[in-house]
């Protein structure tokens, strides 16, 4: 009978151990394509803003008895950024502690984006948990929290993720409008008279647009933090792909 050498025996043990460890990896790790944030679809949320309270104030939180006192300088998060009207704020990083305050009661000083991205499975489950129809075979979801643009193919309740690109959405005071939109037109170059810049590979929606990073040099802010004036900025290769492949009439969800 042939006998195994010590080296061959150890190699077989290592292979068996590796096979067992791989089998223990959760199935959803098969979707891994980058540094993902662990979360479920019902935890997906739009961008929040770090903010400070400007003066002493008491607020009413639904479901909480009495009023809660906030002192000048307290840290909160703005969860609904209305530039001129009342703002909704989150207390103590608790999504159940939401209060409405006057527009001048808090000042945003930085975004509260979450590093990384959602898992592919989370993205697919999230969009298919909603009724989202499109005039084309494509649908786009811009995640303002994760600063990512996701392209789906299919139909209502049956969308499959085919592309994900890092993006940069609107900065504080110029937030990209949240909600359901439609790609209305496409222009190879759109001149913005308001900002004095030429925006390449421009896909318009609801007064804003998806386009290539407008300036020269390194696109260092793409996917890192919001820095636009309400548009969705992409790198050149991503913007080129969108312009070439996404037809007018495609549904866009900004959330």
Question: How does this model look, in words?
Answer:
This protein has 255 residues and is an alpha+beta fold. It folds into two domains: 64 residues, SH3 type barrels (Roll), CATH 2.30.30; 135 residues, L,D-transpeptidase catalytic domain-like (Beta Barrel). 15% of the residues lie in helices and 34% in strands. The strands form four sheets. Strands 6-5-4-1-7 form a five-stranded antiparallel sheet, with no helix packed on it. A hairpin with a 2-residue loop joins strand 13 and strand 14. About 6% of the residues have low confidence.
How would you concisely characterize the structure shown here?
This protein is of the alpha+beta class. It is 15% helix and 34% strand. It folds into 2 domains: 48-111, SH3 Domains (SH3 type barrels, Roll); 120-254, Beta Barrel (L,D-transpeptidase catalytic domain-like).
Features:
34% strand, 5-stranded mixed beta sheet, L,D-transpeptidase catalytic domain-like, 255 residues, 15% helix, SH3 type barrels, alpha+beta, 2 domains
């Amino acid at each position: 009978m042939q006998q195994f050498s010590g080296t061959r025996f150890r190699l077989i043990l290592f292979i068996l151990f590796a096979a067992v460890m791989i089998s223990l990896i959760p199935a959803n790790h098969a979707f891994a394509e980058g540094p993902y944030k662990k979360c479920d679809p019902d935890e997906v949320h739009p961008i929040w803003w770090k903010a400070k309270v400007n003066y002493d104030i008491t607020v009413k939180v639904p479901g909480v008895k009495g009023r809660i006192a906030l002192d000048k300088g307290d840290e909160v998060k703005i969860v609904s950024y209305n530039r001129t009207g009342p703002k909704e704020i989150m207390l103590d990083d608790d999504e159940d502690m939401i209060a409405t305050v006057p527009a001048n009661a808090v000042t945003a000083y930085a975004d509260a984006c979450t590093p990384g991205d959602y898992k592919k499975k989370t993205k697919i489950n999230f969009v298919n948990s909603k009724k989202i129809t499109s005039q084309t075979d494509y649908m786009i979801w811009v995640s303002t929290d994760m600063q990512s643009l996701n392209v789906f193919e299919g139909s209502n309740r049956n969308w499959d993720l085919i592309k994900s690109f890092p993006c940069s959405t609107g900065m504080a005071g110029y937030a990209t409008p949240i909600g359901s939109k439609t790609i209305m037109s496409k222009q190879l170059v759109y001149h913005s008279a308001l900002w004095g810049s030429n925006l390449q590979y421009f896909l318009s929606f609801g007064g804003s647009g998806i386009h290539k990073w407008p300036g020269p040099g390194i696109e260092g802010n793409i996917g890192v933090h919001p820095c636009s004036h309400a548009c969705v900025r992409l790198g050149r290769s991503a913007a080129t792909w969108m312009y070439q492949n996404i037809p007018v009439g495609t549904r866009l969800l900004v959330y």
